[in-house]
Amino acid sequence: MSTKGVATGHAISPDSGEHWANEGAWKVADGIHRIPLPLPMDALKAINVYVVEGDDGLTLIDGGWSIPVARELLDKSLRSIDSGFGDIKRFLVTHVHRDHFTMATVLGHEYGAEVALGVDEKPALELLHRASLGEIKGSPFLEVLRTAGAADIADLWEAGHDGELPDAADWAFPDLWLEGDRSFEIGHRVIDAVHTPGHTPGHYVYADRAEGVLFAGDHVLPTITPSIGFTVPAVEQPLGQFMASLARVRQLPDLRILPAHGPVAPSSYERVDELLAHHEERLELCLASLRARGTVTSLVVAKDLGWTRHERAYDELDVFSQGMAAMETKAHLDLLVARGQATSADRADGVEYTAVN
């Protein structure tokens, strides 16, 4: 959901001087290029894949979505800097979402490049493998929606599901599971892998302190906030984890942000502070809704909030965004419960929340 600043759809990236999603291999620093790859969705036009040169070949931060148009553009962009798929030695994937992971795992297995992913993404991959075998029927998010009091939205999501099973090749297990924090030596560089759960349980950012850059994945985005609560299997306190992870990034040096979506941005400190303030404001709005409404589900509170940078009413959102809004609101309400500002109780029509006076 958008916060202050230039809208993503109009943002110019300083490394290119053009719209951030325009194709190319844009030089971010010596030996580092940003390659935007297309996404087949309206909300986000592209994902930034970063190419880091090393003595033994290339390390890519994320891989993109495994669709033909993205693969062709990645090939073209690498060739523009005199490289190719065979030069890729390693993928450092920030998290398991398909626009970050699937091209990495497909190319990694085709060309023998190592794929690294946070170990806390393993339950999600196992769930996708079960779904690819037909062991799971329908979207695993349906139950999450129902606990948010959004059973009608869950029914619409289910009705819109085309029944296509995930392709197991797109979700092959990585070669290296990342546990805790660690470092990678890439040529003269030392890149620190920092575990930042919240957007997903196994999300990692990668910090090149000497170069002064943070490969931020979806954790610190310059013009929008990442979705929170849109994770299966569901985890406890995704917003609490996200905000704690933002505080971890704030303990690093102030770094230039190399985000997965949006333009390169100058200060991780500035953006982290904005994101923390944004969620504290949302928490206050959720608490005010509870105090006004009494005992209600997440869906009821979501309808009291404004959405996107334009503060659109919930009913103005499309069905997919309505579901996302209900799940994100539930993450905020669960954090209010953890802080002792609200209570929760399981009910047949979803979890209900009550403000603590």
TrEMBL record:
<feature type="domain" description="Metallo-beta-lactamase">
    <location>
        <begin position="46"/>
        <end position="261"/>
    </location>
</feature>
<dbReference type="InterPro" id="IPR001279">
    <property type="entry name" value="Metallo-B-lactamas"/>
</dbReference>
<dbReference type="InterPro" id="IPR050662">
    <property type="entry name" value="Sec-metab_biosynth-thioest"/>
</dbReference>
<protein>
    <submittedName>
        <fullName>MBL fold metallo-hydrolase</fullName>
    </submittedName>
</protein>
<dbReference type="Pfam" id="PF00753">
    <property type="entry name" value="Lactamase_B"/>
</dbReference>
<dbReference type="InterPro" id="IPR036866">
    <property type="entry name" value="RibonucZ/Hydroxyglut_hydro"/>
</dbReference>
